[in-house]
Amino acid sequence: MVGAMANNGRIRSAFPVTNGSKDLTPNSAPASTAGSEYGPVEFSREDVEALLNERIKYKSKFNYKERCENMMDYIKRLRLCIRWFQELELDYAFEQEKLKNALEMNEKHCADMETSLRNKEEELNMIIEELRKNFESAQIQLAKEQTEKLAANDSLGKEKEARLAVEKAQAGLTEELGKAQGELQTANQRIQSVNDMYKLLQEYNSSLQLYNSKLQGDLDEAHETIKRGEKERTAIVENIGNLKGQFSALQDQLAASKASQDDIMKQKAELVNEVASLKLELQQAKDERDHHLTELKTLQTEAAKYNDFKDTIAELEATCSSQSSQIRELQDQLVSSDRQLQMSDLTTFEKMNEFKEQKQTIIDLKSRVEEAELKFVEGEKLRKKLHNTILELKGNIRVFCRVRPLLPGENNGDEGKTISYPASLELLGRGIDLMQNAQKHSFTFDKVFVPNTSQEGVFIEISQLVQSALDGYKVCIFAYGQTGSGKTYTMMGKPGNVEEKGLIPRCLEQIFETRQSLRSQGWKYELQVSMLEIYNETIRDLLSTNKEAVRTDNGVSPQKHAIKHDAHGNTHVAELTILDVKSSREVSFLLDHAARNRSVGKTQMNEQSSRSHFVFTLRISGVNESTEQQVQGVLNLIDLAGSERLSKSGSTGDRLKETQAINKSLSSLGDVIFALGKKEDHIPFRNSKLTYLLQPCLGGDSKTLMFVNIAPESSSTGESLCSLRFAARVNACEIGTPRRQTNIKQLDRLSLG
Question: How confident is the model at residue 163 (pLDDT cuts 50, 70, 90)?
Fold first, then answer.
């Protein structure tokens, strides 16, 4: 213990630095450890995992003083770790405040952009008014100058195009203004939703504190660690939400800026073309003026000789003066166009700078979002690990509830009235409510799966438990529920459909993949498989090649498969076929073979009703050649036959005998659970073959998980209520802390671990 304390008490880098991430802010101060019992200590990820995985060893089993001292020392180190998490939480709160300030700055920037857009709109209106005046003057010139009719028509067409472009630009700016206002409203709504979520999370944390106060004293410190992990996860989720909101808003602003820049570039090109055309018209007007001046001089020289052409000379002088005024107007238009072109260039330059700044801001936000998501994933993993540690210390049987979807032809009118799910954060994903005779019955389990949950989603929740089998633990997962509630679908899945594979095929795939990946670390595993069914209180070997040994006409197997338990908690089934397997494909073939041999029958409740309890056992023996460490694990996957009422199933003959045997064995299972819950001295495991076979899973050192399957139709409300009540009693049973089996030289040929 002293060595472990010294190892965990040495000074290390902060947890984010150890994981390869950056500090939250450049000005963030290191976590304070003032008041710590062990000086300034910081924890890395390896330290936390080592602290959680530490198993206290005792020299004497009955030396309670030593056990108390070791437990107090372990609690002190847990407190030190919790204090460190509290200080880390303060850093996250500081980062959240900083992100809020950044959001306010962005909102202010949006308001400034809105003001600038309005100013631009006014400038464009002035430009439109000036262009309209120019259009009127051009019409007057058309009426007076017949010789310049074609040139004036071209100028009028260009002015019309310019007006349409300006109107389009105005409409685009109006649309951008509307988008900016909508984005501002959306951001305000997101802020409000984040505040509401924060309040709900505060209520959830307070309820967790009330719940944790009822647990045993030696688990209080571990519960405090869970709370810190939940708060950290909440802060990270809020940070991710805020960053994603800012990221999407900046992306929209960037798109709007790009569109505005494109419009400005188009206006610039149009203005350049207009300036060129005006210069051309100006040159033409100058040429005409020179020509008319030449004619005027010629006429003046001839006027001395011919006094009869005075009227013509006056007309030419008037034409010259009008053309001079027209030239001055065109020069004014040219100056105005040059100014507009300079303004457009300046606006384009400003937009380009703003675009670059927003692009850099988006890159920074992307990196922060990625960092926050990474921290969120790490925090979620740590939370699950701490939660599993508490469950292992409590020694309770975990219970998952799964509600199957309605089948074609079933009454779905009362589904909402029969089964519902609490929406509060405290019970989200863990609670289920059942209505019967206008009375509401509420239940809470470790996990509740709604009807639309996929097979993969269910398997993800148990994948860590399956991994424990490779680590040397005994693991048992069994499905319970009435007939037709989806137990066999949960465990075996739908044949031929990859996406609807059940838990058994997915567990095997994970184990073989993990075995392959652990070879690089020096581990070698040997796997053995056995499959049996309990039919009418008789054990049948489903892997036997002798069909007569599997099933006879009278339903009694000629082979005697006796069940025996040794002193180490291992179970032996006599004369049971046990096969070595090398790949998941071999196991799939064996599963198909067992499914063909399993007893099924047709009832009024189910076309393919399982008439027996199916037990799949995978024994795992691992050896590490470099460390010479040996582990032995067992994975038991059990599909129980469904409970049914004779009034609904309509069973007769052989089906009636099967129903009676099934209900009797499930009733014995209920008696065992009831006795375990009351912690009675005598547990009636021997009342049935099923309970006697499950004795190591229910009363030993195994990690046990039960799936309670529920049918959603209103006609099954009574059976569903019974199943949920039974599952609640199972969830309250304490069966002891799981024990890892290591340093075993030879793997015994066991059946159920």
Answer: confident
Residue 487, marked binder: yes
Q: How far apart are CA 344 and CA 267, in angstroms?
A: 8
Check if the beta carbon of residue 84 is closer than 8 Å to that of residue 36. no
| Structure tokens given for 112 | 């400034």
Q: Which stretch of DSSP H or E encloses residue 444?
A: strand 439-444
Residue 717 corresponds to which tokens in the numbers above? 């409300």
Structure confidence at residue 390 as a pLDDT band (50, 70, 90):
low
Q: What is the pLDDT of residue 282?
A: 75
Cα 328 to Cα 650: distance, rounded to the nearest angstrom: 106
Instruction: Compute the distance between CA of residue 324 and CA of residue 683 in angstroms, rounded to an integer.
Output: 118
Is 481 known as a binding-site position? yes
Q: Two tokens at 219?
A: 């688990």
In this structure, of 25-39, 221-235, 290-304, 627-641, the range with the lowest mean pLDDT score is 25-39
One-letter amino acid for residue 63 of the chain? N
486 known member of a binding site: yes
DSSP assignment, residue 571? Answer: E
The CATH number assigned to the domain holding 663 equals 3.40.850.10
Dist CA 568 CA 661 (whole Å): 30
| pLDDT tens column, 35-46 | 444 455 677 778
Q: How, if at all, do strands 523-535 and 579-581 pair?
A: antiparallel
Predicted pLDDT at 721: 92
* 751 annotated to a ligand binding site: no
- 516-544: string of b/e by CB count within 10 Å (b at 16+)? eeeeeeebebebbbbbbbbbbebbbbbbb
Residue 455: CB partners within 8 Å, gap ≥ 6? Answer: 490, 493, 499, 500, 501, 502, 503, 506
Residue 681's domain comprises 395-544+561-601+617-744
Q: How high does pLDDT run on average in the chain?
A: 76
Instruction: Say which residue, 357 or 41, is predicted with more confidence.
Output: 357
Q: Identify the helix (H) or strand (E) that includes residue 312.
A: helix 310-394
In Å, how far from its chain's centre is CA 742? 36
Task: State residue 27's pLDDT score.
Answer: 44
**How many whole angstroms separate alpha carbon 332 and alpha carbon 471?**
88
The confidence score (pLDDT) of residue 373 equals: 74
Does the annotation flag 147 for ligand binding?
A: no
Strand partners, 239: none
Maximum average pLDDT range among 22-26, 156-160, 168-172, 508-512: 508-512
- Residue 31 near residue 70, CB atoms below 8 Å: no
Quote the pLDDT of residue 21: 40
630 among the known binding-site residues? Answer: no
Pairing relation of β-strands 630-639 and 703-710? unpaired
3-state DSSP call for residue 565? strand
Does residue 190 sit within a domain?
no
Q: What is the total count of domains within the chain?
A: 1
| Residue 682: C-alpha distances to residues 175, 702, 729, 747 (Å) | 79, 19, 18, 31
Question: Residue 595: how many CB atoms within 10 A of its CB?
Answer: 15
> What sign does the dihedral 163-166-172-178 (CA atoms) show?
negative
Written as six digits, the tokens of 724 are 């949920």
In a domain, 527, yes or no: yes
Residue 449: what pLDDT? 94
Q: Is residue 479 part of a domain?
A: yes
Residues 541 and 576 sit within 8 Å (Cβ to Cβ): yes
Q: Is residue 539 part of a domain?
A: yes
High-pLDDT (> 70) share of the chain, %: 74
The backbone region for 736, taken as left when phi is positive above 0, alpha when psi lies in -120 to 50, beta otherwise, is left
